[in-house]
């Protein structure tokens, strides 16, 4: 049987050979309906482009690089799910690396991607990120930075409105009648943690001016949330509510409360941030700020593919996803109306 060629795909999809090439190479200037038709035709014919020839002709690797601070945990799993879905739609591969939460190793991970990828997705939530990225990112390589304190106007940045989300959560807790609200912070060098702490402090000062901020150290993991929960329980006067800067710490805190027999929300209310999938399945279900984590990854991947195709992005500065308040049982709201989660 003769091998299938790109001309066969063009004939079945009823488009030109050039359009087939653009669709399979992930160019952005192809209508979605046409791209889907080309991909369906290529799939039906079991057409596989010759990787070596395609790479030589286009000087592309058909690979996106992804550099993350870690690969462990539901946040990164959801982020990768969104990135992978978009990459698969465009028939692109992923080369993934983690620098294990160590900013000093980030430069090595970035340098290792050189010559191997057509563009980079980098999550760099550290305060020193602009300097690190500037030192190790090639100026000619398309890149999108996720959740970074990005000071460079020539780098596309996509993140989360962490400050606004934290303000909204404090507003919700105060509306539930809580006045003494403790906060479990994140890593000292993490930009997301800084913004969430800033939102907590500002909202508390505005809404409950006579309340003292109560900030407990955390590290964005369950163990630090558990330690913070035990510290809260040992205090002479317990808070009305605890707001953890992410869900993993909130779940660790919830476990500490359960071990001690403290009822949530009867004795202490609890809230988190991110809305990882597990948050709705613990007891009591966790009130949190919902970040569409998979969509964050997908949107970043789409923007990177547009850059690789050579299309100019609008100069809108950093783009921020706005978190949505998900009210569940743990915050002690007077009325909790469960609603279906669109992810499931």
Automatic annotation (TrEMBL):
<dbReference type="Pfam" id="PF13377">
    <property type="entry name" value="Peripla_BP_3"/>
</dbReference>
<keyword id="KW-0804">Transcription</keyword>
<protein>
    <submittedName>
        <fullName>LacI family DNA-binding transcriptional regulator</fullName>
    </submittedName>
</protein>
<dbReference type="InterPro" id="IPR010982">
    <property type="entry name" value="Lambda_DNA-bd_dom_sf"/>
</dbReference>
<dbReference type="InterPro" id="IPR000843">
    <property type="entry name" value="HTH_LacI"/>
</dbReference>
<dbReference type="InterPro" id="IPR046335">
    <property type="entry name" value="LacI/GalR-like_sensor"/>
</dbReference>
<keyword id="KW-0238">DNA-binding</keyword>
<feature type="domain" description="HTH lacI-type">
    <location>
        <begin position="4"/>
        <end position="58"/>
    </location>
</feature>
<dbReference type="Pfam" id="PF00356">
    <property type="entry name" value="LacI"/>
</dbReference>
<dbReference type="GO" id="GO:0003677">
    <property type="term" value="F:DNA binding"/>
</dbReference>
<keyword id="KW-0805">Transcription regulation</keyword>
<keyword id="KW-0678">Repressor</keyword>
<dbReference type="InterPro" id="IPR028082">
    <property type="entry name" value="Peripla_BP_I"/>
</dbReference>
């Amino acid at each position: 049987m003769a091998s299938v060629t790109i001309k066969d795909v063009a004939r079945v999809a009823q488009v030109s050979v050039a359009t087939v090439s653009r669709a399979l190479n992930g160019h952005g200037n192809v209508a979605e309906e046409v791209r889907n038709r080309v991909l369906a035709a290529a799939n039906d014919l079991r057409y596989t482009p010759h990787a070596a020839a395609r790479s030589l002709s286009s000087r592309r690797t058909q690979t996106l690089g992804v550099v993350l601070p870690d690969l462990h945990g539901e946040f990164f799993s959801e982020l990768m799910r969104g990135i992978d879905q978009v990459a698969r739609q465009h028939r692109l591969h992923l080369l993934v690396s983690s620098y294990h939460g160590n900013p000093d190793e980030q430069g090595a991970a970035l340098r290792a991607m050189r010559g191997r990828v057509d563009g980079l997705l980098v999550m760099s939530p550290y305060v020193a990120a602009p300097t690190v990225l500037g030192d190790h990112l090639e100026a000619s390589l398309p890149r999108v930075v996720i959740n970074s304190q990005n000071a460079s106007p020539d780098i596309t940045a996509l993140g989360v409105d962490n400050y606004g989300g934290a303000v909204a959560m404090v507003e919700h807790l105060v509306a539930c009648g809580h006045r003494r609200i403790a906060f479990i912070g994140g890593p000292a060098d993490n930009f997301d943690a800084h913004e969430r702490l800033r939102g907590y402090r500002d909202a508390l000062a505005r809404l409950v001016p006579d309340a003292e901020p109560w900030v407990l150290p955390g590290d964005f993991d369950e163990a630090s949330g558990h330690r913070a929960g035990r510290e809260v329980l040992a205090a002479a006067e317990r808070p009305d509510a605890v707001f953890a800067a992410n869900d993993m710490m909130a779940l660790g805190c919830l476990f500490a409360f359960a071990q001690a027999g403290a009822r949530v929300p009867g004795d202490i209310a609890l809230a988190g941030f991110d809305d990882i999938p597990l948050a709705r399945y613990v007891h009591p279900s966790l009130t949190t700020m919902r970040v569409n984590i998979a969509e964050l990854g997908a949107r970043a991947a789409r923007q990177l593919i547009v850059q690789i195709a050579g299309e100019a992005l609008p100069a809108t500065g950093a783009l921020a996803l706005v978190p949505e308040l998900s009210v569940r049982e743990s915050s002690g709201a007077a009325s909790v109306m469960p609603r279906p989660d669109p992810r499931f």
